[in-house]
Amino acid sequence: MSRLKIVAVFIAVVLILGLLAAGGAYLAASSKQKKASSELKTAKDLLENDKTEPAIALLKEHIAKYPRMNTTPEATFLLARTLWEWKEDHEEALPLFERLIREHPGAPYGRQALYYKALALLDKRPYDEETRDFFQELREDASVKHLAFIARYGLALADLDSGSEKKAASALEDLLERSLPDELRDRIEITLGELNLRLLFSPALRPDQEYYTIKRGDYIYKLAKKFRVTQELLMKCNNISDPKKLSIGQRIKIPDIDLSIHVDKYSNTLTLMNHGKFFKKYVVRTGAYEGQTPVGEFKIQNKKKNPRWVNPRTHKLYPPGDPQNELGTRWMSFQNDMLGIHGTIKPETVGFYSSFGCIGMYRKDVEELFDLVPVGTPIKIVGKMNPGLVEESEALGYRE
């Protein structure tokens, strides 16, 4: 055989071996890819069927076994999101989100990871310059749903920390007009509710505020009636400890309020509105059965501190302060003194369907509301009972 033929045969053998090796590698890679995809699908099926612990274990194993596989970004995101939302383990989840941002900045999972990083940064107040810059960069980002809203909330918190309370309140009110995820809306409502109270109670003089100069014959109860506010609110926002010690010529702040109450039976929440805008939200309990808490429009008819209570089943009378007096420390009727908003001696039942029809609140909340709303305040009750909440209430034994 000539040298030329030998070389040709050698090259052919090398090519064949190379093709076989490439084919083998391809088959191995293909098999590995199929196995990785199958494992990821199994993990997703486990999550869909609420088998979270085995899903977490499988996802962790997947990431360790296939660090460079094209399934890894999704597996990393699913693991991080599950740790964040289900286990509420933000410390373990955050490095995984940051890894996605670092290694896949432009990919879908890298962009979605920004959402959770932004959420984590919200709690690290006061913000440093780097965090503020991060929120500034994302405030108009529309690549991930709701990311810009988180950034705007973060910037509102920064304004709040720097003393720009009115600016922060305006930004928070604007955010509540948007379509927000429940977690973010809850955060914003809590922040704005606390801020609204602080602004209302502040005795600081402001150029846009209405003031009244005390004249001879003025008394707190008369001024409260004249300006349609409660005596408690008028005293609190003017730092008046003794209503009998008003001075002629003294200037007092008149709260700018026009309050109304909105109760939603589906979510068991009471939202206090001012001039038709969100002011503060409270968790409440409502009737154990459909129809016990009526829907419709009502008004606060009377208010009582430390009311007595007549048990509607036994007709037994419990005096004010009695440890079995279910009304607690405050009563605000809205239906012929038979139904009302009140406190409770069973705070664990707040949030559930557990009353005879009244709207029950935590003691701190009902006392706060009592000081804010005058007789005549409109109340609107809407919604039907939430089936999921009905089941919870039954399981806890609150629907007797």
Task: Indicate the topology.
Elements: H1 3-48, H2 52-65, H3 72-85, H4 90-103, H5 108-122, H6 129-138, H7 147-161, H8 165-176, H9 182-201, E1 211-213, H10 220-227, H11 231-236, E2 251-253, E3 259-264, E4 269-274, E5 277-283, E6 286-287, E7 296-299, E8 302-305, E9 309-310, E10 317-318, E11 330-335, E12 339-342, E13 353-355, E14 359-360, H12 363-372, E15 378-382, H13 387-395
Parallel strand pairs: 3-15, 6-13, 12-14
Antiparallel strand pairs: 1-2, 3-4, 4-5, 7-15, 8-11, 9-10, 11-12
Architecture overview:
The chain has 13 helices and 15 strands. It is of the alpha+beta class. The strands form five sheets. It has a five-stranded mixed β-sheet with strand order 5-4-3-15-7. Strands 8-11-12-14 form a four-stranded mixed β-sheet, with helices on one face. Helix 3 runs antiparallel to helix 4 and helix 5 runs parallel beside helix 7 (147-161). The protein starts with a helix and ends in a 5-residue tail after the last helix. The model has no long low-confidence stretch (mean pLDDT 88).
